[in-house]
Design a protein that fits this description.
Length: 281
């Protein structure tokens, strides 16, 4: 083969390899824009936005009355409630979106799109992350300026913990979304699951303070490790070495759960297709 022909062949192969990635990236951005526009429309002139802001304010106020503002548990709970917004997004967001698309009659078209279904699913998830990030920031601001919680953050540790935590939640979200797709009733299922995760995930107090019979199943979830690592890094300037007992299992979940989530969602989608119920509500 002539040198020029070999160079052209390699360039062509690289282009073919890049095309699916670019198509998926474009699909993710398009679904993110579409879902963000839809959410802004539903928020209306500001009432929905104000409601979203009111929720963390009320939650932090209730926790202050329960624990007292000088309690170490209150400082932990402010961080945990902030991060728990992402857990809520994981449980409720995509499954309910798929339910709404099925009702509107557009779900089949989404699955027939010429891209990976995980591309547009990720776009939907990114739209939810915008809302949950606002809720999380409001929780932190209320805790700091309304109730005097002192933060001493280790930024390097937080920069590592946050993506690991979100990666683990992304994998869990795919599993929950696939189950919701199968059940065709994502909201009741999400309500059941979220209550269990609040109990076992350390949203209101550390998993280490749960009774033994609850602590064991709680340790099988990534949420408690993530919330404790975030709290220690944000409040006590904990280093990566200090966070190792929580960081190592969280990193394992961050690797395993996305793969497991994609496999589970693919299998559940195939099951729904075999039953002929993808567009049946």
């Amino acid at each position: 083969m002539r040198p020029n022909a070999a160079v052209n062949s390699n360039s062509s192969n690289r282009n073919r390899t890049a095309q699916p990635f670019l198509a998926d990236l474009g699909a993710a951005l398009a679904s993110w824009r579409a879902m963000t526009s839809e959410r802004l429309y539903h928020f209306g002139a500001g009432g929905g936005f104000l409601t979203m802001l009111a929720i963390p304010i009320v939650q932090i106020g209730i926790l202050a009355m329960i624990y007292g503002v000088d309690s170490r548990l209150f400082a932990y709970a402010v961080i945990a409630q902030s991060a728990n917004a992402y857990v809520m997004n994981t449980v409720f967001w995509v499954g309910e979106i798929l339910d709404r698309e099925r009702v509107k009659g557009t779900l089949v078209a989404l699955f027939l799109a010429p891209c990976s279904r995980f591309a547009w699913l990720s776009g939907f998830i990114m739209a939810g992350l915008v809302e949950t990030t606002i809720v999380a920031c409001v929780s932190l601001l209320v805790g700091r300026f309304a109730f005097g919680v002192t933060f001493d953050p280790n930024l390097a540790a937080i920069a590592l913990v946050v993506p690991l935590f979100l990666a683990a939640l992304w994998g869990m979200g795919l599993i929950f979304s696939g189950i919701g797709l199968l059940l065709k009733k994502a909201n009741p299922f999400a309500n059941l699951v979220f209550n269990v995760l609040i109990l076992l995930g350390g949203a209101y107090f550390p998993v280490s303070e749960l009774p033994d019979w609850l602590r064991y199943p709680a340790r099988a979830l990534p949420i408690g490790y993530g919330l404790q690592a975030l709290a220690d890094a944000a409040i006590y300037d904990a280093s990566l070495a200090d966070l190792a007992p929580n960081l190592v299992p969280l990193a394992c979940f961050a690797v395993v759960l996305p793969v497991l989530g994609m496999l589970a969602f693919t299998w559940l989608e195939r099951l729904v297709r075999v039953r002929g119920e993808l567009d049946v509500y």
